[in-house]
Fold:
Amino acid sequence: MTKISLSKAAPHKTKADAVIVGVVKSGSSVDVAPGGEDVASALGRSFASTLRSLGVKGSAGEVTRLPGAGAVKAPVVVLVGLGEGSEVDQERLRRAVGSAVRDLKDVGSVAVALPTDSVERIRAVAEGLLLGGYAFTRYLSENNTKPPDEAVVLTGLARNKAALNAVEEAQTVARSVNAARDLVNTPASDLNPVTFADYVVDQARGTKVSVKVLDERALEGGGYGGILGVGQGSETPPRLVTMSYKPRGAKAHIALVGKGITFDSGGLSIKPSTGMTTMKCDMSGAAAVVSATLAIAELGLPVQVTAYASLAENMPSGTATRPGDVLKMYGGKTVEVLNTDAEGRLVLADAITNACELGPDLLVDVATLTGACVMALGTRTSGIMSNRPELSESLRTTAESVGESMWPLPIPEEMREKVRSSKVADLAQHNPERWGGALYAAAFLREFVGEGVDWAHFDIAGTAFNDGGAWGYTPHGGTGAAVRTLVRMAAERAGR
Ligand code: BES
Ligand code: ZN
Ligand code: ZN
Structure:
């Protein structure tokens, strides 16, 4: 990861392989964003006409390279579009830095001359650098996508303690988002429930997080019928990983539950091959809660966290769960399985019941749960469902504050009756009607939430994996969705 420092030096005199300058679209003209004026004036009077000739518009994501031509110490000036309007918020900044850094392949050092007149803007720039510089290279014979070794952010706040702190925190958060991305991008041949559990044990070593792993025998002993039912078709047995962070003086207890299907073939209700290609991403919820918990502990936030990763591989075989089977879940409720491809809710339910026994102040589950949520909200907005509408709204705000798009969806009243409509078991796992699949799934999960527990469910099916091209600081592949929101949520509960 890029090493970030702050400096008060003048941008045009700063030694680096490239200097990043912002351009803002204002109507039909282009303005240089604050922080870059010094570079613009060093490039001389022809600068404005150069921008015009090159067709620089300042639109979000636009990247143009100019030679420093001796007037600027850096040999390359990278102009990055900040989009329309002079009110540059943190997310516009984060995205622009991400776009710029993705464009810089194989540079050793970069200087950033963007608007950085506040601590929060410095944080956004640091996050943009570290998140945009991410590349998944583990399986490449040749790696030509290395992020810069060093970045210097040019700011008047270079010696400000809060600014330096924000850079440190950005480093922790970005490392955790990138770790979640790595997990998501790792093929299911290498990341299965057993290796995932080993990874968590490994990562927690030497931290303030303790880890407990239930193997298939312990799961049987504990009556975890949901996790076992989903995992029983695979050659690799399921696992339930519990992480615990319990700092002194904790202001609240948060429970997190993540869906960790290391591959979702659909099981006997098998998916068509087109729907299966990206299904190594079906453990993104577990990756998010594991990574966020490690970050919360590293930040030393005074909030207790208990995080669950429900890990199973959903495969078809002679031992797989069949449609029509009845599972006895952790806690004793019975569920009629009607579609083995709706497996996420089954592994989540066991962990949700267990988490509620601890009486947390807040329970959040994170899951690539339904295609229906993608239909409703697209691929850049996650769904939030809750047993308390105000909680959905406040989490939406939390997500927005860190640049993640999430939107409340309802759990309509009629869903309660539908999930309880099975004639052979307490609950029906799947709604044969086609509509409202995300809402039905949430209503099913709600059945396992203990009385009086505040619960929210993040459906990240659309946002966890970027099937298309990179944009802003979002790479192709695993995005690390929900990690930043979970960390921020913990910080808020800790009174920060
Ligand atoms: N893992 C999928 C959901 C998913 C879809 C994640 C697209 C990421 C991208 C989930 O297990 C699933 O298959 N859901 C089914 C549920 C249906 C059978 C009720 C779906 O959404 O089609
Ligand atoms: Zn599925
Ligand atoms: Zn799934």
Observations:
- The chain has a mean pLDDT of 97.
- The domain at 3-155 is CATH 3.40.220.10 (Leucine Aminopeptidase, subunit E; domain 1).
- The chain has two domains: 3-155, 178-493.
- Residues 161-185 form the longest helix (25 residues).
